[in-house]
Amino acid sequence: MGKTISLPTLKVEFFEIFDDPFVLSEFERRKQIFIPILNRQSWIPTAEDVIVQKLRWGRSKDLDDLTDILAVQDPENLDIPYIENWCSIHQTTSRLSDTLARIPPM
User: Fold this and answer.
1) Is 92 exposed, middle or buried (0-12, 13-18, 19+ CB in 10 A)?
2) Over residues 27-38, mean pLDDT
3) What residue segments make up the domains of the chain, in order of their start?
4) Do the beta carbons of residue 41 and residue 33 sit within 8 Å?
5) For residue 3, what pLDDT is reported?
6) Please, are residues 49 and 61 in contact by the beta-carbon 8 Å criterion?
7) SS3 labels along the chain
8) Do 30 and 44 touch, CB atoms closer than 8 A?
9) Which residues make beta-bridge pairs with 31?
């Protein structure tokens, strides 16, 4: 008799690479990790690139996600100059400042 295994829900998003300086940089910086639930290697963007992309999109859900990411990652562990550089290019510096101000103290 077979065994039934319940796995947690896994959400995967796919993004197309296109000729955009940030998207190309994000793709070059991606990290390969082992994902146990899939039992395989996969590529993921760096935390910094997820932050920059969410600031760039600027939807309220993205900004809420961003607050959570920054609270979990702790800005001290991130390459903030890299993030600030892209924010300057994308004109999202005020979004970054507003989000950093909303992070609860640890």
Assistant:
1) buried
2) 91
3) 46-106
4) yes
5) 63
6) no
7) CCCCCCCCCCCCCCCCCCCCHHHHHHHHHCEEEEECCCCEEEEECCHHHHHHHHHHHCCHHHHHHHHHHHHHHCHHHCCHHHHHHHHHHHCCHHHHHHHHHHCCCC
8) yes
9) 44
- Six token digits for residue 78: 């991130």
Identify whether the C-beta of residue 55 lies closer than 8 Å to the C-beta of residue 95.
yes
Residues of 19-46 as b/e, b for ≥16 C-beta within 10 angstroms? Answer: eeeebeebeeeeeeeeeeeeeeeeeebb
Q: How confident is the model over 38-69, as pLDDT tens digits?
A: 889 989 999 999 999 999 999 999 999 998 88
Q: Which of 39, 62, 61 is nearest to 52 (CA)?
A: 62
Contact present, 98 and 66 (Cβ < 8 Å): no
Q: What is the pLDDT of residues 73-102, one digit of tens each?
A: 888 899 999 999 999 999 999 999 999 888
**Residue 45: its pLDDT value, please?**
93
